[in-house]
Amino acid sequence: MFKKILIANRGEIACRVIVTARKMGIRTVAVYSEADKDARHVELADESVLLGPAPSRESYLVADKIIAAAKSTGAEAIHPGYGFLSENEDFARRVEDEGLVFIGPKHYSIAAMGDKIASKKLAGEAQVNTIPGYNEPILSAEEAVGIAQKIGYPVMIKASAGGGGKGLRVAFNDKECFEGFTSCRNEARNSFGDDRVFMEKFVEEPRHIEIQVLGDGHGNVVYLWERECSIQRRHQKVIEEAPSPFISEATRRAMGEQAVALAKAVKYQSAGTVEFVVGKDQGFYFLEMNTRLQVEHPVTECITGLDLVEQMIRVAAGEKLSFGQADVKRDGWAIECRINAEDPFRNFLPSTGRLVKYQPPESSMVAAESERYGVRVDTGVYEGGEIPMFYDSMIAKLIVHGKDRLDAIAKMREALNGFVIRGITSNIPFQSALMAHPDFKSGNFNTGFIAAHYGGGFRAEDVPHDDPDFLLALAGFIRRKAREREAGISGQLPGHEVRIESDYVAVVNEGGGKASRHAIHVAEYVGHLGEATVHVNGKSYQIKCLSRLNDIRIEGTVNGRPFTAQADRGTPKNPLAYRIQHLGRSVVANVISPRAAQLLALMPYKAPPDTSKLLLSPMPGLLVQVGVQVGQQVQAGERLAAIEAMKMENVLVAERDGKVASIEAKVGESLAVDQPILRFE
Q1: Could you count the other beta carbons within 10 Å of the beta carbon of residue 468?
Q2: Domain spanning 614-680 has what CATH number?
Q3: I need a labelling partner for 506 at 20 to 30 A (CA). Which of 398, 500, 560, 670 fits?
Q4: Residue 179's pLDDT is what?
Q5: Which candidate, 507, 610, 241, places its Cα nearest to that of 397?
Q6: Strand ranges for 360-429 from DSSP E
Q7: CA nearest 673: which of 621, 619, 623?
Q8: Would strands 101-102 and 77-79 be described as parallel, antiparallel, or unpaired?
Q9: For the whole model, what pTM was predicted?
Q10: Which residues contact 11 (CB under 8 A, 6 or more apart)?
Q11: How far apart are CA 198 and CA 171, in angstroms?
Q12: CA-CA-CA-CA torsion sign (264, 267, 268, 273)
């Protein structure tokens, strides 16, 4: 077994590999960029090596520097994690040529599956179901239309080297096919330097289901059941679960056997994933093979009790698999939510900056162990750390394991309730809404789920709550407890002591100078610490809670049922307000005396400043382009500027016709949220 390995990655996956290596008694070497010098994976590793500047092309993607780091520290093997160089055939070969071990598949397996056209041919030869289509490069838009007519619409036009949603179009007629081919080819050339495009039948109501495989260097390959990854946004996975709530046992077995056949055909060693698209009739077709560890591997670990990173290391060290297909168990149900640094209420724009507060729910499962029916958090960040703009937006992976699917969903909803993130914005409200959606809970969804239900964007009213008045009741309960504490402060002037009221009014700003007002009565139980009955809007809530007033995460019971919620005292715009969050729903309320509420109603409304003539940065990021000049007349929809954040280029376009009066920011400048970029006349 190896004594020391280098991890050629960052963030949560680097931390994840370190946990298993430590369990196995293997020392670890971390690599890092200048932006990651204080990162968690650097702190956890036994040694660390600086690679270079923050951009990944100057650090994490430089094979020479990584191999040199392994040699200089005496590492015997390199684990690539996922992303970066994990599926780079040349890197895998270089590692082996330099006398090191690549903890992953052999370079020839990566090569065989790395090209989508070649992999489809190989899958067909291995008797794996493939989607009807045309697997040779298509040379012109006219040829594309003719091929589409033979296959039958709808068709999917895909770049051979595509990925992450780039180089992909769906066409339902000749016109869409002609235009889609041209756009797809141009995008592929610009993004990947490879403009080869092929075409296949578009499967309607498709599900994205993948099979986890594991092979060794002795010809043994097993499948570790499936993962359902159909909840996607712009082809990026949002929620993953194992097993799938859709497929039958017969389909499950057939998919697993075909995945093993493909893995054996490419002499696959290590953990890998064979992805399938599954139609509403449970017909399944090969999509691609990911020759690496997947982001969503924890859900497979939960239901099988296997440590996939450990298995990868053992296979790379030359060991045989210690179990066969009949030994692979399937226990319970696991769900993973990707917690990302993005604002779901602003079209999921990236959010970067300092994690002022970071308190994930308590983990009862650890990555390298096989505890059952609990909560697990895989993360690469810590409170006080930075979320840089140079890499992906993932903060953590939140994983739960339940006895069945409904139990897992309930565990996930409660875990999301207790996940505290402040300083940046996260997608937790969106994840909470998905968990509560009736179609998700029933398993009635496909890859178009998010586009169908949230095609117009995600809004606060899209977050369901069985009883939103509970949030107001909790605000009243906390306000009463705060008054009790204030009353206990010594040194108060006689006759002017703080009075503990029972009646309050919660004033909720509805925008545009309008506010709703809710009378709240709090009846304290004498001698019952942390307990009160709160009346609001004709409802009664008996609340028991012993959390401290300065805790953000608060826990207790309401009417005998346990709850976890979050409470902030004061907001940037209103230091006297309470912000309560529960099940993804949020309310900001001033909880004040009835007399204060009367006086507040008399206060004049101050409208926010007019920003209609400004182009403001919607996110923190790097201004990489300003596409207009002073004095230029622009039309609605015209490209104005581009901001780069978290490996994504975000294009800003004109909302209406206008004339540029001034340019307020320079290309290369790091922008803050709402910083002016352009001013119009």
Answers
A1: 14
A2: 2.40.50.100
A3: 560
A4: 92
A5: 241
A6: 375-379, 386-387, 394-402, 420-422
A7: 619
A8: parallel
A9: 0.86
A10: 39, 41, 380, 381, 391, 392, 394
A11: 13
A12: negative
User: Using only C-alpha atoms, what is the Rg of the chain?
Assistant: 28
Whether the CB-CB separation of 257 and 211 falls below 8 Å is answered with no
DSSP one-letter code for 280: T
Domain spanning 469-487+499-601 has what CATH number? 3.30.700.30
**How far lies 31's CA from each of 49, 73, 151, 196, in Å?**
5, 11, 48, 35
Residues of the chain with pLDDT under 70: 162-166, 370, 487-492, 495-497, 526-528, 647
Active site residue 288: yes
- Are the C-beta atoms of 278 and 207 separated by less than 8 Å? yes
Pick the CATH number of 207-450 from 3.40.50.720, 2.40.70.10, 3.30.470.20, 1.10.260.40: 3.30.470.20
Cβ-in-10-Å burial (0-12, 13-18, 19+) of 92 comes to buried
Q: Which is nearest to 21 in space by CA: 42, 48, 2, 38?
A: 2
CB atoms within 10 A of CB 142: 11
Residue 614 parent element (H or E)? strand 614-616
Residue type at position 542: Q
What does the block give as tokens for 466?
Answer: 């069985």
| CATH class of domain segment(s) 4-103 | alpha beta
Instruction: Quickly tell me which residue has 């840089």 as its tokens.
Output: 388
Structure tokens at 73: 């520290």
Selection from 332, 319, 408, 417 nearest residue 370 by Cα:
332
How many CA atoms lie within 13 Å of 540's alpha carbon, on the beta-carbon side?
A: 7
d(CA 11, CA 32): 10
Range 447-464 burial, b when 16+ CB lie within 10 A, else e: bebbeebbeeebeeebbe
Provide the residue ranges of all domains of the chain, joining segments of one domain with +: 4-103, 132-201, 207-450, 469-487+499-601, 614-680
Q: How far apart are CA 376 and CA 363, in angstroms?
A: 5
Structure tokens at 595: 């007399």
State the Cα–Cα distance between residues 263 and 106, nearest whole angstrom. Answer: 12
Q: Give the count of beta carbons closer than 10 Å to the beta carbon of residue 666.
A: 9
Contacts of 386 (CB under 8 A, 6+ apart): 35, 38, 352, 353, 354, 355
Structure tokens at 412: 């996930």
Q: At 618, phi and psi to the nearest 5?
A: -80, -5
pLDDT value for 272 = 98
Tokens standing for residue 191: 């993004």
| Closest alpha carbon to 471 in 366, 341, 595, 566 | 566
Taking alpha carbons only, the member of 581, 579, 475, 489 closest to residue 534 is: 475
Q: Which of 210, 228, 241, 288 is catalytic?
A: 288
* Cα dihedral 590/592/595/599 (nearest 10): -30
CB 427 within 8 A of CB 340: yes
The type of residue at 215 is G
Are the beta carbons of 421 and 343 closer than 8 angstroms? Answer: no
pLDDT score, position 72: 97
35 neighbors 106 (Cβ within 8 angstroms) = no
pLDDT confidence of residue 561: 96
Say if residue 243 is preceded by a cis peptide, omega within 30 of 0. yes
Q: What is the CATH number of domain 132-201?
A: 3.30.1490.20
| β-bridge partners, 47 | 29
Q: What is the dihedral of CA 547, 549, 553, 554, to 10 degrees?
A: 40
Cα 259 to Cα 276: distance, rounded to the nearest angstrom: 9
Separation in Å, CA 627 to CA 44, 67, 648, 680:
44, 40, 18, 14
